[in-house]
Amino acid sequence: MSALNNFEIKTLLAHLWKDYAVMTPQAEHIRELLAERGEVLENDHIALRTFNLEPVGLKVLERVFLDLGYVYTGEYDFEKKKLYARSYSHPSGEFPRIFISELLTEKLSTGAQKIIRKIVSQVRQGVTGKHLLYMQSLWPKVSLEDYDALLMESEYAGWLAAFGIRANHFTVSVNNLRTFGNLESLNGFLESRRYKLNGGKSPIQGNPNEYLEQSSTIASRIAWEFKGGVIREIPSCYYEFAMRYPVPGSWTLYDGFIAKSADKIFESTDVKRIRQAS
Ligand code: NI
Predict the structure, then answer these.
(1) Residue 275 has pLDDT above 70, yes or no
(2) What gap in Å lies between CA 101 and CA 107, rounded to an integer?
(3) How far is the CA of 75 from the centre of ligand 1 (A)?
(4) Quick check: pTM over 0.70?
């Protein structure tokens, strides 16, 4: 049973990476740059985004991972961003943590709610569970007008409407890198290779006292097709880097997430901020 689960996890994660790598050209480039130094990357976590509506809510996605042997490790509220999230770890330690967030649709304006409800109502009946993570497009292409309307209220809503449920970011485990002792030196290396990090001069979120430090690249921009064949270049996904510290009195590294830091990192795909930075 467990061997079969492990095989299924590997297959699912490989699918998510393959899809993410297409959406995020910089991730594959960075992976190659680090591979040239002899690094074999391990993922700290993978982040998924969804709407809090049936049949795509957090609980439906969560079930996929719980059935594969993952265990729940914490929940997080992002009030400003109108999100709720949960994290999961695999007891074997062999697989990346999973971080699932959902947009609290009812907290947006009536107009935005209407757009989102229409989108979600178009998910084909019977598509549920892990199929939600394997489908290339869960709903038809949204119009640019709807995308822009959602973006005005929530970067997250716009992103999700355009891209559907897929990995928003993968995260390199800095603890497992052999040629970088800390997150700062990795950030310096990436900047020397002309990668722009979210947060500019102070890219690190969190600190050792919180047992977790993270940084992330500014999201890749890709040409994306909207309804009616309209194409616009929009931010897609970013690559994240995490360094974890041991919790005092414990032999293991901190396993959770910090809402405050993640709140900041969610801004990596913020269109307005990216315009300022580029
Ligand atoms: Ni993350």
Answers:
(1) no
(2) 15
(3) 14
(4) yes
